[in-house]
Amino acid sequence: MTRRKNPYPGVSRVTDRHGKVRWRFRRKGFSCYLTGPYGSAEFRAAYEAAVDEVRTPASYSTAPHGSLAWLIEHYLRSPKHMNKSEATRRVLHRELDWLRSTAGDLPVACFRVRHIEALMAKKPGPAAANKVRKNLSMLFTYAIKQEVEGVTTNPARAADRMTEGEDGFHTWTEAEMARFLDHHGPGTKARLVFLLALNTGAARADLSRMTWGNIRGGKIAYKRGKTGVGGEYTILPELAEELARLPGDVLVLIHHGKGLPYKPETLGNWFKDQCKAAGLSHCSLHGIRKGQATRIVNEGGSPDEVMAYLAHKTNAEGATYTKKADRGRLADSGLSRLTGAPIVQPIGKVGQSTPKNGRKSK
After folding, report:
1. Inter-residue contact 337 to 167 (CB < 8 Å)
2. Do residues 211 and 253 touch, judged by C-beta distance below 8 A?
3. Does this model's pTM top 0.70?
4. Angle 174-183/286-298 helices, nearest 10 degrees?
5. The domain 56-158 is classified under which CATH number: 3.30.70.970, 2.40.10.220, 1.10.150.130, 1.10.60.10?
6. SS3 state at 352
7. Which CATH architecture best describes the domain 174-339?
8. Cα distance between residue 52 and residue 10, in whole Å
9. Measured distance between the N- and C-terminal CA atoms of the chain, rounded to whole angstroms
10. What would the pLDDT profile of 204-227 be if each residue is shown by its tens digit?
């Protein structure tokens, strides 16, 4: 009887210490577990990535075996990393490059909690320090799953997390939105970018990619690069006015030079300058998402509505944007119970300012 040829050379069936059946790839000293059911599309993609890694070992030759740099290089070529969105991979690659340049020659098997906290201390600010802790924890979890010699625990999990401010990026208020639009009048690129972000909740990476192809039948639709979740939004009147002013022969909605799109980072920096010009140096493009999500909550919007607006996968992801609004509403509700009368907070419209005499501007 002819023995059936293995369609995936180098792959063997193993049972881990928890009794779970897994598929392991071994070749030329490289070893990794493959994700997904045997023979599935996910499995085949993981297998091809592992084969490619063996075919191009030169990129690993500069890092000492078992060092942090060696682990980072293996992780960056892993199916787990390659399955992330392009935007996430780009940011993570930059963060891991810092770890590689700072402590890449250290052996991962010798890492202890004090080493994790020492690396965290090299970063300015608690948010950046916690990002170091998070990335190291991810790397050690990966090393444990790949059974890297000498790595049996994750020291980053035991490191103390630094206390961060709750608000993060500043959330735009109604007054700040009105001030920005008052300064950047109709027909300006700053106004177009602001209204696009306000209408769609899109992040800078998604805004920079928007074209006329995203607009159809009075709606604007896009798929968020970070989550892969699609969103569809009715174009509000103010945005419709700005879109009508754009030339139809340029495909990209937000562009510079000869119709060329911005890089996401460049767009964010450019918009920051427009905020400073309007006297809002503490505001940013990302804060528009938070401001609009907060307005939705203040108007009684449900978690599902916030999730849909932000193109998130779960309600939990939008919680960071609505904590402040929830606290404010609950506080007002509590006070109304004591006074017996409802507390009404006027919600103005974007682009409408209220002078000191209390009369709304026409």
Report:
1. no
2. yes
3. no
4. 130
5. 1.10.150.130
6. coil
7. Orthogonal Bundle (1.10)
8. 13
9. 90
10. 989 999 999 999 999 999 988 877
